[in-house]
Design a protein that fits this description.
Blueprint: E1 4-9, E2 15-20, E3 26-30, H1 36-49, E4 56-60, E5 66-71, E6 77-80, H2 87-100, E7 106-108
Parallel strand pairs: 1-7
Antiparallel strand pairs: 1-2, 2-3, 3-6, 4-5, 5-6
Length: about 110
């Protein structure tokens, strides 16, 4: 099974999306958006940018864990990964976003 986006509304009325892999694990989380349409534009940006290697920024947190940001062409962060114990796991996460990011499936929980 391929991945999907889940669009949700937070308790303070803002919107966010997550990208889930086929095994239902969250592989990318967005920032908070003030409007649903802005969050939907974020999803469209993931679809556009996720296949491109140059859109991934590999990072190391202060606690030594590894993660990545997916960035748009204007260098804005579209989404952030979970924390990974190894660089190899982080790179597998990037591969999963590349595979699942172009999906057209959105589960709207707003």
């Amino acid at each position: 099974m391929s991945g999907w986006f889940e669009l949700s509304k937070s308790s303070d009325g803002q919107f966010r999306f997550v990208l889930k892999a086929g095994n239902a694990e969250t592989i990318l989380t967005s920032e908070l958006y003030t409007t649903k349409s802005a969050a939907e534009n974020g999803i469209a940006s993931v679809r556009t940018n996720s296949p491109s290697d140059e859109r991934y920024e590999k990072k190391t947190a202060t606690n030594g864990k590894f993660y990545f940001n997916l960035k748009a062409g204007n260098h804005q962060v579209i989404g952030t990964s979970q924390m990974y114990a190894s660089e190899q796991s982080r790179d597998k996460g990037i591969a999963s976003v590349k595979t699942n990011g172009p999906t057209q499936t959105v589960k709207d929980h707003t």
